Amino acid sequence: MGRKQVPSLVKDEKLIQKRREEMVKAAVILFKDKGFHRTTTREIAKAAGFSIGTLYEYIRTKEDVLYLVCDSIYDEVRSRLQSEIVMDQPGINRLKEAIAAYFKVMDEMQDEVLVMYQEAKSLSDEALPYVLRKEIEMTSMFEKLIQRSVDAGNLNLTEKEVNLLAHNIMLQGQMWTFRRWILQKEHTLESYTQFQIQILLNGIAYDQPTNQV
Amino acid sequence: MGRKQVPSLVKDEKLIQKRREEMVKAAVILFKDKGFHRTTTREIAKAAGFSIGTLYEYIRTKEDVLYLVCDSIYDEVRSRLQSEIVMDQPGINRLKEAIAAYFKVMDEMQDEVLVMYQEAKSLSDEALPYVLRKEIEMTSMFEKLIQRSVDAGNLNLTEKEVNLLAHNIMLQGQMWTFRRWILQKEHTLESYTQFQIQILLNGIAYDQPTNQV
Amino acid sequence: MGRKQVPSLVKDEKLIQKRREEMVKAAVILFKDKGFHRTTTREIAKAAGFSIGTLYEYIRTKEDVLYLVCDSIYDEVRSRLQSEIVMDQPGINRLKEAIAAYFKVMDEMQDEVLVMYQEAKSLSDEALPYVLRKEIEMTSMFEKLIQRSVDAGNLNLTEKEVNLLAHNIMLQGQMWTFRRWILQKEHTLESYTQFQIQILLNGIAYDQPTNQV
Amino acid sequence: MGRKQVPSLVKDEKLIQKRREEMVKAAVILFKDKGFHRTTTREIAKAAGFSIGTLYEYIRTKEDVLYLVCDSIYDEVRSRLQSEIVMDQPGINRLKEAIAAYFKVMDEMQDEVLVMYQEAKSLSDEALPYVLRKEIEMTSMFEKLIQRSVDAGNLNLTEKEVNLLAHNIMLQGQMWTFRRWILQKEHTLESYTQFQIQILLNGIAYDQPTNQV
DNA sequence: AATGAATGAGAATTCATTCAT
DNA sequence: CATGAATGAATTCTCATTCAT
């Protein structure tokens, strides 16, 4: 639901999925290395293991590859996240765990995350909204988690503050990859996670006086 | 100090500076609109008001333009910041004022900031370090401010935490432009600033119980 | 007699004929719309109702389709013409009737005629003579009709003049389709036919003074 | 007046004209030989004596070349015609001379005429009207000549007949090139001209009884 | 210093044809 | 016989860069 249709000349749906996976996998590596614009369609085809003609049996334009890449990365992030997060129980600790899980996924998928956020801007006006929607969906996942703690009386936040907090979480996860060149020199994922959670939550939680997480 | 030399065929330094300013001004607008790769050197020259031949009298490659753009934006950010921040006196309030001033500058220079962070990755391995260094310098400006509060006993943070906090500040400023499509729909710069400062500081300041900024 | 052999991988002659008819029918529509070069073999196959693989079971190259199209149109023109023309009796009126019948067929088969004369030039040096021969055959049909009137003493023309007159008739029929964009705005088929016959014949017939047809 | 603007990146109008002439000259030869679609832009550039890059400094698309070719041929035809036709005096003989002059120009410019009428259909919907208008203009030149003889009482024709007669003349001129493969085997330009004029006029002129021209 | 015409390597995309299933 | 996925040569067009004037 809500996914942009990328037309293919090939009919076999299974095959389409398989080939596109190969294509996306190859493209991520290339995009990470050289960026979307400096990567040629021929390189993508070659790296994916098929001919340029075959590539174009599964997409319409080079930009389609970028869209598929972004789409696929979001799906992967979400799927990994869902397997790590238990959303059944409320509470600050659930939220903390979710944040940590999210940071972990960002850490594991650094290359993909980097590619997605660096190159998404090259999507056409038509494709971009689909990708932005996914970002909003992920953000609202955190909003819901935070809201639960608010509802449970563990946090005292207005709606706008909940929203902003969710954005902060999202961006701090991305920051770990964007600023890897400096952050990952000086911090481990664990220390980074610990401190960010502390900053995010301790200022706003009721049970403050003690500074521990 | 630490600026990459961009060679020019023209001798007159005054003229070089003038032409490059025109060129950068034109390029920022174009890059914001179409991105670095989709902007042609012809377009830059035309928008800057001179011929393609003249453009190449003042740069060596298209990438030089990007470097000059990034360089110039950093200088502008810093210069605006410095005129707003009083660094002579320590204290949490000074820090808060600095953060607010930084957010304000980011807000005023949204287009430029967007261009710089979106396109800097297209810089060559040779030019990139010069730009990253500027980012580090700006970050350490905040580090110093924070450190003063630590030294003055207003904050209790390890060196790594100071570093991370500075990064958080930097990124939150950028986030205001990156996520403008969603943030600026729901928040004003003032409310955004207020809340981010609250999150950043209240969790770590000694004088917590009261939730004011 | 005198038809170019287009090889097929399929043995069943009935089937070959059936498939080729489907293919030609589809191709005429496409060629009329987009021209031979802008029409793809895939489109032809699809419009004909079978797969690209099947198309190539019945032809060797795309040009074969064009040849089959031209060939088929000529056959259709001739067949329609023969059912309308009575060649048994001589006389000027027979000739006039034949011309009118020919113009009528051209009018009915406008699309096909247009395609044939516009695209025949794309035939290879090998195939072209077969098509030209058909044109010559049709021309000489008119030559024979005219010659009969000459032999019967109704017209006074040299052999070369008979030939040229036949060409004029042929071209005036085609002109009705070629220049449809202007002619068919200002004339009906009937008025066009009337006047052309008048021009063609009254100048050369013995019984001139009266200007009637 | 009424000419489609073909944009060029080059500013020097003189140069544009010169290069386009070279380009058209080269293209006519190639188009005659292989047709528009089978001729590549690289071939055109090479034959014109400049690089592919330079070619595209003077046109926007390949189709522009075709338009320039058609446009230039029409201009050439008209200019040659005007230098041969005296339009000051009326009379049947003036008309006959004009027809002969037109046939002569068609004969001299066979290659160009062939190219124009075979390939004009490949023009876009946007460019085609400009070319058709030229055809109409030429046709109405003959209309005017015929009308004069009508006005002078030498011919007795309705307006529609005048129009159709003009079309006949136009097409007979073109026919000399279209059907060159057969006509020019059996006729000289002179005999062709003589006979066509006789057919066209003798049937409609008042002074008929004697069949000579 | 300024200009802008010339260059050609390079990039995306198409499409006739083949061939394994 | 029928299918349609695979192929890659070929084509149009772009654009950073140069250099003669």
UniProtKB/TrEMBL annotation, chains A, B, C, D:
Signal peptide: none annotated. The keyword Cell wall biogenesis/degradation does not apply. Residues 17-77 form the HTH tetR-type domain. SUPFAM superfamilies: Homeodomain-like, Tetracyclin repressor-like, C-terminal domain. InterPro entries: Homeodomain-like_sf, HTH-type_Tx_Regulator, HTH_TetR, KstR2_TetR_C, Tet_transcr_reg_TetR-rel_C_sf. Residues 92-126 form a coiled coil. Residues 40-59 bind DNA. It comes from the Bacteria. Keywords: Coiled coil, DNA-binding. This is TetR/AcrR family transcriptional regulator.
